[in-house]
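Write out a record, fold above all:
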Amino acid sequence: MSAVRGCVPSSLPLVPPIDVDDSCLSTAAPNAVGRLDEVTTILPSTPLFLFMYVRKEALLSSQIEGMQSSLPDLLLFENDELPQVPIDDVTEVSKHVAAIDHGMRRCAANVRSAPHLRPASKESRRNGSTVERGRP
């Protein structure tokens, strides 16, 4: 039998305790939502903003996984042009975009429970994942 090593975190409560000012939390969240709502009034096009935001989020997620793709590469790929990076990397980012879009459509349809959002996760892994292809 082989030995197994693991990290066991300290039990709660944390030492030193975390000092959370409840009055700050109760006003910060509504203020942040108010600022976000105000930004939407000055956007020239909310769908265009979401289009670019989804792609940027997909790129950041993919870059964490070691992908080499950039926003120009993704936009080239989506317009059936040849990107400057390996096609597998751009394809992987494109799958992330499809998964995020799928999740947003599910949320727009008021489907927000975990079992109903799992298809978005499956969508991102369709046609093989980075782990299956031997990437870290």
Remarks:
- Confidence is low (pLDDT under 50) at residues 127-136.
- The CA atoms of residues 67 and 89 lie 5 Å apart.
- The first helix runs from residue 22 to 42.
- The chain has five helices and no strands.
